[in-house]
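User: Second chain of the day. Same drill as before.
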Amino acid sequence: MTDKINELLRRVEEFKPKAAAEIEEFRIRILGKKGELNALMEEFKTVAPELKRELGQQLNSLKQAATERVNALRDQMQDATANGPGIEDMTRPGSAEQLGSRHPISLVKNQIVEVFARLGYTVADGPEIEDDWHVFSALNFPPEHPARDMQDTFFIEKDPDILLRTHTSSIQVRTMERQKPPIRVICPGRVFRNEAISYRAHCIFHQIEGLYIDEGVSFADMKQSLLYFAKEIFGEQASIRMRPSYFPFTEPSAEVDVSCNLCGGKGCPVCKGTGWLEIMGCGMVDPNVLRANNIDPEKYSGFAFGMGIERIAMLKYGVKDLRLYFENDVRFLHQFDTAL
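Assistant: Same format as last time:
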């Protein structure tokens, strides 16, 4: 019986399959219920008692060796399959790895930051989870303002109010707290509002806001800065117009439109036949905001502006559905490879 065990062990050690199916056939033939190892186990029952200890150890070693050999061969076969054909031929050219691309939101954000960096603006940052003071009170929002309602804002805690910031203006407040004029910052970041998701709205989006405070800053300075921005982003032919508006933190305030870059201002479905596309809000910093942040409004003045990065990207690249920015569909994202 010892000779049979040694012969079977030799076959196990020398077994070299060429396909995964051969490994499974070998396992069944050796370790299966009707396999050769079980046949030896049946024969083991008839041996003399004084031989059982030695032969039992040999059978256990055989079973362990056969099991380990089968598992090792399976692993080798899987590795060879994963590496693909021809892996042993090191002279073959390698397969090019498919590289990713920057997200269109990141591309547009970087472009906007670069434009304003030429005007002397630096990038400021702040937390996404904020308190009432930095999001509302320091920006002259009255207690009854609808932005303070739960249907418009994601609140985490109440009394005191802790919330997900609804705009990156909170970064402007934090900048004014720690820095005295002159201040010239650009504030990009993610913001959150309690809105139904559709092709034109989302509960998460990205804003970029700017703040400039110094002595003698005027509305004309703001208009010229925003015109420069529009021409750099949408082309030298771009023009802007300003419409009176209202924001709690600026006075006077305006909405800024840029001439439609799709129809050249002639009117099309995208601009609803007007020849203009709204891109941002702006205005002169309200004196109450300056006072709330310990800046003397008699000495200093400034302007602020804010825009949605998704909105600018939609206009720049002709994207018509806001949800595409958040789905991470590589077919959509690879369209922007050439924009790098």
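The longest strand covers residues 204-214.

User: Great, on to the next one.
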